Amino acid sequence: MTIDPTRTAVLGLHWQVNVIEPSGFFGALLAAPVAAGGVVGRATAFHAAAADRGLPVLLTRFTIPEGEGELVRNTGFMNAVADAQNAFRPGAPGAALIPPMAALQTATFDNQKLSGLAGNGLDSWLRSRSIDTLLVTGVATNLTVEQTARHATDLGYTVHVIQDCVAAADQATHTASLANIALTTAGSLTAVQALA
Fold first, then answer.
1. Where is the Isochorismatase-like domain (predicted)?
2. Residue ranges of the domains in the chain?
3. Strand, coil or helix: what is 157?
4. What is the pLDDT of residues 11-38, one digit of tens each?
């Protein structure tokens, strides 16, 4: 695939302690499959290679400030994180980006939504730089990755999920989500395909 670095960005979703590490809020669900699949190493390498080509590497964090910000308690998921909101405060250890990702970021955007483009300034940041193509990485495939990919597509972006740089709690869920993404976005690519 030919990448125009002036119109493309990497969007890394929820590479934070609460999602990736065993000590995090979602650790019991996601830490083991993330570690077993080696996704952090592949995504870190992909982010570094993209940055070397001049692409911005943008990260999102799910955080909950005092007063709950733009959090809406309208799903079981949002109720669960709202009930544990101290773990998601912007300065809480669990809200921190994992070190390999923090070292590669161009900018980080916080929000209280599943879509990385909702409730923050990310869409405006991208449009002000004429970026129209997103290469998406993150955890979990069936939650923030799929939600963001669909949302970005609806906003007019060309979206490619980097299939070997995303993970879910189990392989069946991951595979089903990638099938959905194939139908609702520009499709998924491997890291090698995206930077070929």
1. 13-187
2. 8-194
3. coil
4. 999 999 999 999 999 999 999 999 999 9
Domain at 8-194, CATH class: alpha beta
Query: What would the two tokens of residue 148 be?
Result: 């963001």
DSSP-derived 3-state class of residue 71? coil
Widest pairwise Cα distance in the chain: 45
pTM (predicted TM-score): 0.97
First to last CA, the chain: 6
pLDDT at 3: 82
Which has the closest alpha carbon to 102: 162, 59, 45? 59
Spatial contact of 140 and 178, defined as CB atoms under 8 Å apart: no
Contacts of 130 (CB under 8 A, 6+ apart): 6, 7
pLDDT tens digits, one per residue of 101-111: 999 999 999 99
Quote the CA–CA distance of 172 and 170 in Å, as a whole number: 6
Token pair in block for residue 96 = 């921190």
Residue 151: closest CA among 114, 194, 180:
114
Give the Cα separation of 194 and 1 in Å (integer).
6
